[in-house]
Amino acid sequence: MTVRAAVVTTSRADYGLLHPLLVKLDGDPRFELRLIVTGSHLAAEHSTVDEIEADALPIFARVELPAGGGDRLQMAGRAGAALTLLADAIDRSGADVVVLLGDRFETFAAAGAAVLLDVPVAHIHGGEVTAGAVDDPLRHAITKMATLHFPVAETYRRRIVQMGAPAWTVFNVGALAVDNVAGTPLMGPDEFLKEFGVACDSDTLLVTFHPVTRGDSAHELDVLMRALDELTEFKVLFTAPNDDAGGEAVASSLERWIQDHPGRAALVSSLGSRGYLSAARNAAAVVGNSSSGLHEVPVLGVPSVDVGTRQEGRERPPSVVHAGADATAIVAAVRHATSPEHRAFSKVALNPYGEGHTAEHIADFLADEDLLLRARRATFVDLQFEEPAGAAPAEGSHR
């Protein structure tokens, strides 16, 4: 039987990671790919659907959502609309399995739609923790709705089992980022400048800052901007923030900083996967609070500086330098990361996310009809439980 695999992509971020898997599913006779494109891919101010079209991947459905970038209420409303609209697309796809990556609110809506349609969900990048983002509870909710699990590291595999998933449904397959980097021909500084009209070289910091949806986003951005004020030895190339609540405010702040520092900074709304990876490889370091600094950038052998709380709790490869929401700490972290010693270390540092071939591993699991059927019938697993020492029972509970 051919497996109809509906894959939902919501943004440039998950598409860049999903790309090697999409190529594998599209060219594998065991599958019929049903690619569903939604979220910021189709938003006028962030549109990246042209990258998918350029890759000649067949798009089954384009699911446009209400405009975003506003407050939390708007984001909640968009999630509700996404559930309804994605349910229709998934139903029309006739999917045997819905494949999701990550923790976006659109991804959460797709998982909910699939569960209500009784279609099994395969989830990539579950089991992670990001204390500074609303993505955290959404990711765990997707895990609870999923049938098959493809975490990218052993720590995350164990956490999903801890959440009650049968161990035989949870597979540490490594990160698709490793496949993506290995399979992408990257541009050098000269080709990048010709392609995008902006420079990104060894004197440049590549900076991505997304809204901190469970913290003080304005404060964390302010201290980052103050740190960049001091790091005058570097040019700065910003990529646009995502369209979570607060995204418009972040974008406006970046534009003001660029205007106040003429000739030193630029912003590119979307580099695409190849452009972003090329910029990261060419840069002195990647700075900000994007998960790419923890997943893709270390695979390139490039140092990154993780700023603030957004990625707090995620496993950090040794090439990643963390700095709290403090301008002095960020300046020190960037200068350490860009030192000759740390740049040399980053090229050889151990990558905790596997050695590649992740797309092949995921495809083999998805093609296993017996596994899909068994996993759909799997039940919650109770692990041995011990009350933490000194823990008091919740008020109103009884021993």
What is this structure, in a nutshell?
With 399 residues, the chain is α/β, with parallel strands linked by helices. Helices cover 43% and strands 15% of the residues. The strands form 2 sheets. Strands 3-2-1-4-5-6 form a 6-stranded parallel β-sheet, with helices on both faces.
Summarize the SSE layout with pairings.
Blueprint (H helix, E strand, L loop, with lengths): L2 E7 L2 H16 L3 E8 L10 H6 L4 E5 L8 H22 L3 E5 L3 H12 L4 E4 L10 H11 L2 E3 L3 H9 L13 H7 L6 H8 L7 E5 L8 H14 L4 E5 L7 H14 L4 E4 L3 H11 L2 E4 L7 H4 L4 E4 L12 E4 L3 H11 L2 H9 L9 H9 L2 H8 L23
Parallel strand pairs: 1-2, 1-4, 2-3, 4-5, 5-6, 7-8, 7-10, 8-9, 10-11, 11-12
Helix pairs in contact: 1-7, 1-15, 3-4, 4-5, 9-10, 9-13
Overview of this protein structure:
With 399 residues, the protein is α/β, with parallel strands linked by helices. 43% of the residues lie in helices and 15% in strands. The strands form 2 sheets. Strands 3-2-1-4-5-6 form a 6-stranded parallel sheet, with helices on both faces. Strands 9-8-7-10-11-12 form a 6-stranded parallel sheet, sandwiched between helices.
User: What would the average pLDDT be, to the nearest integer?
Assistant: 90
Could you give the order of strands across the largest sheet?
3-2-1-4-5-6
Whole-Å distance between the termini?
52 Å
Largest sheet: 6 strands, parallel
Short descriptors:
Rossmann fold; 16 helices; 6-stranded parallel β-sheet; alpha/beta; 399 residues; 2 domains; 43% helix
